[in-house]
Amino acid sequence: MSRNAEVAAVLDEYADLLEAMGDDYRPSVYRRAADNVRDHPEAIEDLVDEGADAVERIDGVGEGIADHVVDYVETGSFAELEDARDELPVEMDALTRVEGVGPKTVKKLYDALGVTTLDDLEDAAESGEISGVSGFGAKTEANIREGIPFARQAGERALLGETRPLADDVVDHLETHDAVERAAIAGSIRRWRETNGDVDVLAASDAGQRVGDHLADWERVGDVIETGETKTSVRVDGLRVDLRVVVDAEFGAALQYFTGSKAHNVTLRNHAIAQGKKVNEYGAFDIADVDDPDAGQRVGDLLAAETEAGVYDALGLPWIPPELREDRGEIDAAREGALPDLVAEDDLRGDLHVHTDWSDGGHSLREMIEAAAEFGHDYVCITDHAEGPGVFGDSGLSDADLREQMDAVDDVRDDVAVEVLHGVEANVDADGDVGSVSDDVLADLDLVIASPHSGLGDDGGDRTARLVAAVEHPRVDVLGHPSGRLLTERPAMAFDAAALAAAAADAGTALEVNANYHRLDLWGTAVRAAVDAGATIAVDTDAHSPAEYAQRPYGVHTARRGWAEAGDVLNARDADGLRAFLD
Ligand code: DGT
Ligand code: CA
Ligand code: CA
Ligand code: ZN
Predict the structure, then answer these.
(1) Which protein residue has the closest C-alpha to ligand 1 atom 5?
(2) Could you tell me if 503 and 358 lie in one domain?
(3) Would you give the DSSP letter of residue 397?
(4) Terminus of the chain with fewer CB atoms < 10 Å: N or C?
(5) Whole-structure pTM value
(6) Residue 458 pLDDT more than 60?
(7) From the CB of 198, is ligand 1 less than 6 Å away?
């Protein structure tokens, strides 16, 4: 991973500070630049090395922003940012993570009450001071108070879409050292959990200290927390990286242990004990003839330690994919030979949720379609937003726009190497209706996604009826990002996953696993409910740019966390199978 995410975060912070100061125009310019820097395929620090002109090659980055980026990468800040931070010295990122608290609210609460941190905000909300500030009522104060725990917890976990690329880079860096025999990602990142407390990696080597030093010396490392023979911890881009070094002969056992989850490991240990065996980070052991199995870590006859598959095999189990290791019945299923044959990245043949510059995407119809062909898709469905509440600006399409887009799709369709479907992403309104698009337009489109874009957030109310009504709508084919959650930013709306799954199965409507790593919506347990109910899922990227097609793995592995097989996935079907489902 490059420093793109870090630079984007700084541009977003500056945008928030400008907005708080009452600047109406520049915040959106900086946010757009931040999005483009974040998604840019080249490393921002490499562009900075080339000079400000190279940075300006990024869409939406003009001379002024490019200069700021160069200053930031070279010196750790830029003058205007420091001035703004001096004027409003608050933890902007943490405070705005509270639902309903934007930059302008932060400024008001700083001016009136001196609130600079989440702790300050909590104190002010609990003592009733916020409702005493002009413009704030008791309801707002209560909402802020209730939003603080989510914001606090969210701040402690990082998105898989940020940690996973970093973990891959750490492994690559470790593998450049000649004393490293193998290296691998472990922990919750290996299980593809959607947020992660830290980055766990494991290396096999007889020279632990040298390997630890090699990590500490990596150019990307900010702070070194500790180094040692077996454990080294550093911080990169604000994320904690924990490295364990073990001997190659015990790498499999260590990988099994440090992949977790803790709950999976506890159940696995009990399964071992029931067979007169023992499993820990050093191996699987037969302890049937041992008087005191707790006399040491390596007590008993060693059965396996070198490979993870060997450890499971020694306990009479097939290898269990990391996505399943959450203690949700996977060990029983393994014992019974009933593990699912999980959907794989290569099983997917197309993407059914894609935006263009007809709505809020950044690229033309032709660019997005050609990029889908280049990505290797057999088919792609263009699904720009219909007009309606919650859709960015006035970017949504009217009936007339959709009719016009049908012709535009036809113009591209014939000379591209991918089958093109034309659909729409309509809004689910409060009653579960799809609002703004008329029925005759819906009928003429190949595919209709209905997604909640407004009335989101968890107000404690049960939204099952709203979502069930949407899946039962006769024109709706896919329910898009059903909960509306934005990881670490906005909680999922509450709904009964089993009831939604049953309704979707009955209605023949697919439930989306939105692969955008800010969403991952549905998620593991909700996918499991869908699969158990016999509902179909659709793993789609919701791409707003060609680069976002590459977020597909996050969706596939999230579906795997829900025990999904290829047969459960709409876009694992070939084009004929897809059309049969849509008709
Ligand atoms: P995270 O970091 O909160 O996203 O979740 P994990 O699962 O990566 O947890 P972490 O980093 O604390 O530990 C990595 C793995 O190491 C964990 O999944 C299982 C194993 N592990 C760590 N500490 C313990 C422990 O005290 N008991 C057991 N059974 N396993 C542990
Ligand atoms: Ca971890
Ligand atoms: Ca850890
Ligand atoms: Zn969308």
Answers:
(1) 188
(2) yes
(3) B
(4) C
(5) 0.83
(6) no
(7) yes
Select from 222, 246, 270 the last residue of a domain: 246
Report the domain count for the chain. Answer: 4
Is 340 a member of any domain?
Answer: no
Give residue-wise pLDDT tens across range 465-490: 999 999 999 999 999 999 999 998 88
449 Cβ neighbours under 8 A, 6+ residues apart: 352, 353, 383, 423, 424, 425, 426, 476, 477, 478, 479, 480, 512
Q: Are residues 357 and 326 in the same domain?
A: no
Cβ of 322 less than 6 Å from ligand 1: no
* Final residue before a domain boundary, out of 306, 335, 364: 335
DSSP, residue by residue, 7-27? HHHHHHHHHHHHHHTT-SSHH
C-beta of 293 in contact with ligand 1 (< 6 A):
no
Q: Which residues pair with 201 in a beta bridge?
A: 185, 243
Do residues 561 and 548 share a domain? yes
Q: Ligand 4 is a single-atom ion; what residues have CB below 5 A from it?
A: 425, 542
Which residue lies with its CA nearest to atom 23 of ligand 1? 262
Place 54 in a pLDDT band, splitting at 50, 70 and 90. Answer: very high
Q: Is the CB of 163 under 6 A from ligand 1?
A: no
**What's the pLDDT tens digit per position in 214-246?**
999 999 998 899 999 999 999 998 899 999 999
Question: Between the CA of residue 119 and those of 13, 91, 116, 175, 553, what are the distances in Å?
Answer: 20, 11, 8, 42, 37
CB 187 near ligand 1, within 6 Å: yes
* CATH code for the domain in which residue 440 is found: 3.20.20.140
Chain segment 401-457, per-residue pLDDT in tens: 999 999 999 999 999 999 999 999 999 988 888 878 999 999 999 999 999 887 776
- Res. 290: pLDDT tops 80: yes
Residue 6 banded pLDDT, cuts 50, 70, 90: confident
> Whole-angstrom Cα distance, residue 544 to residue 30?
18
The Å distance, Cα 188 to ligand 1 centre, comes to 8
